[in-house]
Amino acid sequence: PEGTMAFAGKYEFEGDENYDAFVQKIGLPSDKAEMGRNCKIVTEVVQNGNDFTWTQHFPGGHTTTNTFTVGKEAEMETMGGKKFKATVKMEDGKLVADFPNYRHTAEISGGKLVEISTSSGVVYKRTSKKIA
């Protein structure tokens, strides 16, 4: 069912599109860009109603965790490790967040986690398959 509980689970990076163009556009430092390229990131989503804990596990033990409630401002961390405040919204079953220099959406489509980040017309798409 396409309910609010659709996000919970663990997802492993499967593929992406436009990575290089996107990280250049948002000014990600090259070491960080290299770390994220074709990286088998495992995204773990814990959901309790509108409350989310969204953790990305990078190879080598680095993790980034964002905790937020849909519709309420929360402190988040970007791909580059910068902290900022954002309000995550739910639109048509997608989670939508406006990061400082890009817009990020996440949805479950065909059992996969599909994340799309858009910055000045450059669209970066990352797909992860459910592993747990």
Automatic annotation (TrEMBL):
Q: Name one Pfam family in it.
A: Lipocalin_7
What domain of life is recorded for the organism?
Answer: Eukaryota
Supply one GO molecular-function term. lipid binding
The record's section on InterPro entries has: Calycin, Fatty_acid-bd, ILBP
- Provide GO CC annotations from the record: cytoplasm
| Compartmental location | Cytoplasm
Q: Which controlled-vocabulary keywords does the entry list?
A: Cytoplasm, Lipid-binding, Transport
Domain (Cytosolic fatty-acid binding proteins) ranges: 9-26
> Family per UniProt?
Belongs to the calycin superfamily. Fatty-acid binding protein (FABP) family.
Q: Which PANTHER family match?
A: FATTY ACID BINDING PROTEIN
Q: Under what name is this protein listed? A: FABP6 protein
Source organism per entry reads Panurus biarmicus (Bearded tit)
Q: What is the lineage of its organism?
A: Eukaryota, Metazoa, Chordata, Craniata, Vertebrata
